[in-house]
Amino acid sequence: MRFPSLLLKANMSGKISNPDSINGQTGKGNAGLTCYLGHIVSPISESEYADIRDGALIVDQAGVIVAACPKSDIEKNISEYKRVIDYGKRLILPGFVDTHSHLPQIPFTGRSGKTLLGWLDTYAFPAEASFSNTTHAEKVARWYFDELARNGTTCAVVFTTIHKDACDIAFQTALAKGSRVIMGKVMMDANSPQSLLEDTSKSLAESEELCQLWHGADNGRLLYAFTPRFAITSSEKLLAGCGQVWERNHGTYLHTHLAETQDEVAFVAKQFPKSRSYLDVYKEHGLIGTNSVLAHAIYLDDQDLSVLQATNSALSHCPSSNFFLKSGTFLFRKVQKAQIKFGLGCDVAGGPEVSMFDVMKNAAFMQKDEWISPTELFYYATLGGARAINLDNRIGNLKPGREADFIVVDPSCRTGVPKDILEHKTDEILSSMIYLGDDRFVVASYVRGRQIHTTEKQVLAGVTT
Ligand SMILES: [Zn+2]
Question: Which CATH number, 2.102.10.10, 3.20.20.140, 2.40.50.140, 3.90.25.10, labels domain 96-388?
Answer without folding.
Answer: 3.20.20.140
